[in-house]
Amino acid sequence: MSLPRLLVLAAIGCLSLSAEGTVPALDPAGLTQILAAQKWTVIEFGGPTCIPCVKMQPVLADLQQRFGSRALIRNFYVTQYAREAQFHKILVMPTQVVFDPMGKEVARHIGYWPKDEFLAALAKVGLK
Prior knowledge:
This protein is α/β, with parallel strands linked by helices. It is globular. The protein is built from five helices and five strands; from the N terminus they run αβαβαβαββα. Strand 2 (about 40-45), helix 3 and strand 3 (about 70-75) form a beta-alpha-beta unit. About 30% of the residues are buried. The protein has helices at about 5-10, 30-35, 50-65, 80-85, 115-125; strands at about 25, 40-45, 70-75, 95-100, 105-110.
């Protein structure tokens, strides 16, 4: 799927919504830095107005609170940084990618990820 098609998919169903309990968003330098931090990391590749992305924010905020300093949970807005999205093979928003402390991708999910399923997947890869 080409990047223009990704952006079209990103625009479908978008509204100006605000999410309570959002986690911080990264720029490209921040993404590089966080993946080198030697911590469990969850990045949601999405957008600030994408409806499923907005619906994920309370789940992500809860995960950040639950894991505290053991994991870093962040957003990365693919609509603002398309080149980096392509590098990470992001085709649909939202896509959640879990990285182990060495920065290796260990899990990936596309779309809304219910918290109980998200927690089960994190436990399966070793983040408990």
